Amino acid sequence: RQIDSIGKQSSVQITTLFVQNDQIVKADKYLLSGPKVANAMDFLDVKRYSLAPGQYRLMTHIVDMNDTTNVLNSSIDFSLSFERGKTLFSDIQLLSDVKKSIEDGPMVKSGFLMEPVPGSYFSKQQNAMFAYLEIYDLHETQYSKVSVCSYVESTGKEAKKLDGYKSCKIYKTQSVIPVIIQKNISTLPSGNYNLVMELRDTNDLIIYDRKAFFQRSNPAADIASIKVDQESYEHSFVKNLEEEAVQYSLRALGSIVPTADVDILNSMISIKNFEAKRKYLHNYWTNFDAVDTEKSYQKFMKLAREVDAAYISGFGYGFETDRGRIWMKYGPPNDKISIEEDPNAPPYEIWVYNEFPKTKQRVVKFLFYNPNLGNDYILLHSNCRSEINNPRWQKELYKGAKSNYNSDEYSESGNISTGFLKHAAEYFNDL
Predict the structure, then answer these.
(1) Which residue numbers in the chain have pLDDT < 70?
(2) On the CB side of 122, how many CA atoms lie within 13 Å of its CA?
């Protein structure tokens, strides 16, 4: 909300419940206000709770106090177990930064101010990874000193340790041992990884270990590590493509590549190294179809040109619009309806797919709308599991008709009252 001529402030109400055997054993409800800023920004909040050993469900309810229809609910099951006389590890907390601190605070532990990494995701701007854990009750064992070793491993069926990321440090035993490690990940390629931490005795035998999953996005390292089969590459169709065609082909791929590959593709589009662009294109289509590589590429590009022509806008190619992207990714809909004469809403379209193998759903729908009255329809809502789902889509679609709203128009569900020509929900549900 606007609090003065230049400053804005976010505010959320947070309710936290700890449930055990269908009984609430601990509850907390508080109002959290963000910093006063000129533009919206991310901020962190940390709360700590003490619980007895056992099985729990953590339930969280968050309400945006500047728009109470904007609600987030989450639930997670977890267990706590403490055995006296047995050495235990805390979970690994992944961090983006660690600094010494003489002050107290929710983000300070063991004399260090720690900045957590949301979602265990290290972006291309982050070249260092920190991690913190605690070891408990080691003083009650026969060990006088131990070592903590850490390394990074790839995930999947063929998980393996990566060279250059292992480190070890010796600690004297005590009731609680705080451990902080730092890894240089500037050359770690994009991908999914585990950070592994091991407690080892003086004979180098593992006493205990922990893993923490994380994701890394590092397009610069990905580009530098691109390798091709040189003989195959020299005889590939991409060698005959002009730079303009290569660039167009890369941008067309943006609608279908997995989310994990978006950063490297965007970087590939922006760099000036034409040979690297060609090699990326060669590798993509060779991996997609090693037998009829060029045929698959030409089929895809034919579709890209058709979609480009159908949905061209003033803000990029047609396949880069929301309607173009959905068509490229999932194919043409089985049915669609276009509404352009609703006096209470901008033009909108509803697309219906009767079968949807991508997510193993049936009857998947997309609603696009055109608030700027150009040719760039925006995806407002879908029941597709991998696309935007907006419970308040009716409120957004009909926000220009506020003078016609009834008193219950802003219900928590995001529904609006029925009225003159407000039929979008009927179309969406009945198609």
Answers:
(1) 1-6, 84-85, 140, 401-421
(2) 29
